[in-house]
């Protein structure tokens, strides 16, 4: 029995289909089938039974699945902790950042930190949206994130950095284009385009709008400002987004929206349940003490 067999077994149990499981594992279906036959022979029992084109765990398979998942989870956690220790000893900090800040605020932040510390770490930057950042912080893939806050991630700590104004975006010839300021009630006649409700910013925007004007119509949702702005341009509709540089490429009117100023707050996030290296703790402490970047924009 080897680790590959255990990973293969867990994946097949979850997909319940040889072809799909093999595709997920990037191996051939015969290789997966042979690995499972070998595992069943070693264990002396049948782990799967056929149900049409799918497979299901037998009673023995269910017993072995629980043990396999526990074992692999422990191994995966040990691997993550070891990798974190190696990175820590090497002075490496993995920073994941939302697209609107990775080329602007983040380089300035790192440069200022490095100028004040003679033994600065090596930073590896990752361009991601908030949800993958939060997941990466939670599982140890990233050391620090610049992203939205999500209360469901209880193992993460968040330090507010800055806020971005929420605006309505419309084509220049739209009926709302000449407005200087928009109350959410003015949006009721329109089908709105905004962020994915699964994303923290999508949840914040919807909550802020519903607090002022319940039951607005959200026609479409996307991950970032670019597809939202594209839909607004093509369909002559109304978008609700954070006012970021990603809108600069579009011929749109940006109109301030009457919602709380902290609706879109970007934070520095880190996992407080994991042991922080001295250099990572130093970087986090520097951020906490930096007044320059906590000013709202």
From TrEMBL:
Gene3D superfamilies noted in UniProt: 3.40.190.290, Winged helix-like DNA-binding domain superfamily/Winged helix DNA-binding domain
Pfam name, any one: HTH_1
Keywords: DNA-binding, Transcription, Transcription regulation
Annotated HTH lysR-type domain residues: 1-58
GO molecular function, one term: DNA-binding transcription factor activity
UniProt xrefs under InterPro entries: LysR_HTH_N, LysR_subst-bd, WH-like_DNA-bd_sf, WH_DNA-bd_sf
Coiled coil: none
Domain of life: Bacteria
CDD domains (alphabetical): PBP2_LTTR_substrate
Methyltransferase in keyword set: no
Keyword flag Plastid: no
Record-stated family: Belongs to the LysR transcriptional regulatory family.
Listed name of the protein: LysR family transcriptional regulator
Species this chain originates from: Lactiplantibacillus garii
């Amino acid at each position: 029995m080897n680790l590959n067999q255990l990973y293969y077994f867990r994946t097949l149990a979850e997909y319940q289909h040889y072809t799909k499981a093999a595709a997920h594992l990037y191996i051939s279906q015969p290789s997966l089938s042979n690995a499972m036959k070998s595992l069943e022979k070693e264990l002396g029992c049948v782990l799967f039974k056929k149900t049409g084109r799918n497979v299901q765990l037998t009673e023995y398979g269910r017993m072995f699945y629980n043990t396999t998942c526990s074992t692999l989870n422990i191994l995966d956690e040990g691997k993550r902790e070891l990798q974190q220790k190696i990175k820590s000893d090497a002075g490496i900090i993995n920073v994941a950042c939302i697209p609107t800040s990775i080329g602007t605020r983040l380089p300035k932040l790192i440069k200022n930190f490095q100028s004040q510390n003679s033994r600065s770490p090596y930073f590896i930057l990752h361009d991601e949206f908030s949800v993958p950042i939060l997941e990466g912080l939670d599982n140890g893939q990233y050391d620090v994130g610049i992203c939205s806050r999500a209360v469901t991630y209880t193992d993460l700590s968040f330090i507010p950095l800055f806020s971005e104004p929420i605006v309505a975006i419309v084509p220049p010839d739209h009926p709302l284009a000449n407005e200087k300021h928009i109350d959410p009630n003015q949006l009721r006649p329109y089908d709105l385009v905004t962020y994915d409700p699964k994303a923290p910013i999508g949840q914040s925007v919807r909550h802020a709008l519903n607090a002022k004007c319940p039951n607005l119509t959200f026609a479409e949702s996307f991950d970032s400002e670019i597809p939202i702005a594209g839909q607004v341009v093509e369909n002559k509709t109304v978008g609700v987004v954070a006012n970021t540089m990603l809108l600069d490429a579009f011929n749109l009117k940006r109109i301030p929206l009457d919602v709380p100023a902290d609706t879109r707050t970007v934070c520095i996030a880190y996992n407080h349940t994991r042991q922080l290296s001295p250099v990572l703790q130093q970087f986090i402490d520097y951020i906490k003490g930096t007044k320059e970047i906590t000013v709202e924009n």
